[in-house]
Design brief:
CATH architecture of the largest domain: Beta Barrel
CATH class of the largest domain: Mainly Beta
Number of strands: 34
CATH topology of the largest domain: Dna-directed Rna Polymerase Ii 140kd Polypeptide, Chain: B, Domain 6
Strand content: 25-35%
Radius of gyration: 35 Å
CATH superfamily of the largest domain: DNA-directed RNA polymerase, subunit 2, domain 6
Shape: extended
Largest sheet: 6 strands, mixed, barrel
Structural class: alpha+beta
Strand order of the largest sheet: 12-26-13-24-23-30
Length: 600
């Protein structure tokens, strides 16, 4: 007797579990039971589990009977003519949905030609075992799983046409590639996902070779001529938003050009782009410190007397200005209302991004890297037919990562470009590598993609044959212009007096234990004194009680709050964070006594 559980609740027992399961599956395929009902038999526990809960993940498979697929040529013909659809196949029992539990009791075949009498199901298509982004990677069955996953994730970060109505959208931190192209080598998923409508890369010529060491450690060498022709050129959009808020007591913000006597007034130069309504005009070229939306606000804190005395000088400046290091052109100005009926101003800034050293590029196979060198077109190596590569890829990126799909794509796209057709790189069912090689041979090239190349500077032939071909490359959103950061002196935190944190706040760059070791190893240990006194302060200390004393700047006198004035007080140099810790000790009732000694 086998126990039966429906949605994990015990419902009874059955004598013949196999017949019971076969009956449920049969009724489901007839349509008498809902297609999401799944059943499985645990032999070790002698238990049957029927699952009908919502929210479970099911996947479709073609039913196989006696080693033959239930999906026939007749079905395919009817689907093509539009006589039947997917739902009809499910109702006819040709396709059924299985969950992870029921799949444990099945034997699924990848291809129809591999079917045996033991098989119970057939994959609808071999790529259904991978996700949408991963299925976009061509020839992915020739690469290790982790690299294919990285390739799929990289495509999510690629720049392209993210939305057709980008010109009227106010999106945060977005990029737009100027000339995206359809890839020469694509997969079935490109067609199904409508990728042609929003491509995110460009077809370029790639040579696999080293170039003066500038493409070591995954870096790429880029042709300056290609950049001048528009390779990887994009626009970065960022919005500035402000609204007129209403406060208690009838006070409101005001979008305007602030008066000079207002608290926090910047300078007339900062407000030079604002029109009479306090809003900047389109196509204004702005940089750090320029005000984009002028605004004044009522005072933050009102005392009982101030409520009746709201003069103009009480208001404060609260406009929107460009932060440290920002630059751009005003692209679009929108004046509207928000949900509460307050006036809302949105200004979109744009900035053209031309590829520079440090910008990140990647193929679709997880072979990502930054630009290590931009070489003039005349200095790039060239082939005997005069083809100059757009990008030079390091050969050391292949052996350890084993991304053979990367190499096959170079050959495949080369065949497609020369032959004038697209190449299918769908996982498991792609165009055969041997066929691609044979076609390349008929086009007058070596079948392995190798070519003789010449040094662009000397004109001499490079002794080794170079693997060169076409490839689909993506520019990623990680650009130097968004990440570059340095600082000498700048803002500090109020409490600890140490430098602020983060690029947005003009923060300091942290020097850790390992960085300290490198300075010591270089013999530059004196530099550490400069680096480690970011919060250096001079504090008076009482010699008698060892507590921090008080120094009156106006009277030029020092005294101890415990011992009085007639004690010796000396100034010492220490970290403000340490001084703060001593104050914390006092609040805990601990006596932090400092014992001073002579320096020499």
């Amino acid at each position: 007797m086998a126990e039966v559980f429906i949605n994990n609740k015990f419902m009874g027992e059955v004598e013949d579990p196999k017949q019971f399961i076969a009956r449920i599956v049969e009724e489901r395929r007839k349509g008498n039971l809902h297609f999401t009902v799944n059943v499985t038999y645990e032999k070790d526990l002698d238990s049957i589990y029927v699952e009908a809960n919502k929210g479970r993940i099911n996947r479709p498979l073609i039913v196989v009977k006696d080693g033959k697929s239930m999906f026939t040529d007749k079905h395919a013909e009817q689907l093509t003519k539009g006589e039947i659809n997917w739902d009809d196949l499910v109702k006819q029992g040709v396709i059924e949905y299985l969950d992870a539990m029921e799949e444990e009791n099945t034997l699924v075949s990848f291809f129809e030609e591999d079917l045996t009498p033991d098989h119970t199901h057939l994959e609808v298509h071999p790529t259904s075992i991978i996700g949408v982004a991963t299925a976009l990677v061509p020839f992915s069955n020739f690469s290790p799983g982790p690299r294919v996953l990285i390739g799929g994730k990289n495509q999510k970060q690629g720049l392209g046409l993210y939305a057709a109505n980008f010109s009227v959208r106010m999106d945060m931190d977005v990029n737009l590639l100027h000339t995206p192209q359809k890839p020469m080598v694509s997969t079935l998923m490109y067609e199904l996902s409508g990728y042609d409508k929003h491509p995110q890369g460009q077809n370029i010529v790639v040579a696999v070779m080293s170039f003066k060491g500038y493409n070591m450690e995954d870096a790429s060498v880029i042709n300056k001529g290609s950049i001048d022709c528009g390779l990887g050129r994009s626009t970065y959009f960022r919005p500035c938003i402000s609204e007129e808020l209403r406060y208690a007591g009838g006070l409101t913000d005001e979008i305007c050009i602030p008066d000079k006597d207002i608290k926090g007034f910047r300078s007339e130069h900062d407000y030079r782009y604002l029109e009479d309504d306090g809003i900047i005009y389109p196509e204004a070229a702005v940089s750090e410190g320029d005000v984009v939306i002028g605004k004044t606000s009522p005072p933050r804190f009102l005392s009982s007397m101030d409520e009746y005395n709201l003069a103009i000088d009480k208001r404060r400046e609260s406009g929107v200005a460009l932060q440290h290091g920002e630059i751009g052109t005003v692209d679009f100005v929108l004046v509207t209302e928000n949900g509460e009926g307050n006036k809302l101003i949105q200004v979109r800034l744009r900035e053209q991004r031309i590829p520079e050293i440090g910008d990140k590029f990647t193929s679709r196979h997880g072979q990502k890297g930054v630009i290590g060198l931009i070489v003039p077109h005349s200095d790039m190596p060239f082939t005997s037919s005069g083809i100059v590569p757009d990008l030079i890829f390091s050969p050391h990126g292949i052996p350890s990562r084993m991304t053979i799909s990367h190499l096959i794509e170079i050959v495949g796209a080369k065949v497609g470009a020369l032959g004038g057709h697209y190449v299918d790189g769908t996982t498991f069912v792609s165009d055969k590598e041997d066929d691609l090689r044979a076609e390349l041979l008929t086009l007058g090239f070596r079948e392995d993609g190798m070519e003789a190349m010449y040094d662009g500077e000397t004109g001499e032939q490079i002794l080794a044959k170079i693997f060169v071909g076409n490839m689909y490359y993506l520019k990623l959103r990680h650009m130097v212009a968004n990440k570059i950061h340095s600082r000498a002196r700048g803002p500090v935190q109020l409490l600890t007096r140490q430098p602020t944190e983060g690029r947005a706040k003009e923060g300091g760059l942290r020097l850790g234990e390992m960085e300290k070791d490198t300075f010591v190893a270089h013999g530059a240990s004196l530099l550490l004194k400069e680096r480690f006194d970011a919060d250096r302060t001079v504090v008076p200390v009482c010699e008698e009680c060892g507590m921090i004393a008080i120094y009156n700047v106006y009277k030029n006198k020092a005294y101890c709050s415990i011992c009085g004035e007639n004690v010796e007080i000396n100034a010492i140099e220490l970290s403000y964070a340490f001084k703060l810790m001593l104050e914390e000790f006092k609040s805990l009732g601990i006596y932090p006594k400092l014992t001073l000694e002579d320096k020499y």
